[in-house]
Amino acid sequence: MSQADLCRAYLQALNEGNLENVLSLFVPGAVVSSPLYGMKSVEDFYRELFNDTNQSTTTLLNVFSSDAKTVALHFHYKWRMKNEKVVNFECVDVFKLNSDANKFEKITIIYDTHPLRAAFDDVKMS
To answer: Can you give the residue ranges of every domain in the chain?
Structure first.
């Protein structure tokens, strides 16, 4: 799978809330660094994210690649949480690719948490 295909498949699986499809894009033992959820295994992170989510809608804005092993997706994220609160924000997901460049090894998620922190805290307390 090419980098472009991998990135498209990731956003599609995120929009669908499809845990199996998301996990299939990562190597075993892959990790996520998230501003809201912290450092977690890919499986734990996406299981928790999808549990907190009623709907995700992403709109790809840019794809950046500095070398064959790193790719970043810049996208708009509309996140409808399980408590029906909706937050909209721009996000950058930076992926480290495996040696074959066909799966993700690590993802670092970057966005400003200030506009959505209260809604996130509410969903965690419910």
So the answer is: 3-119
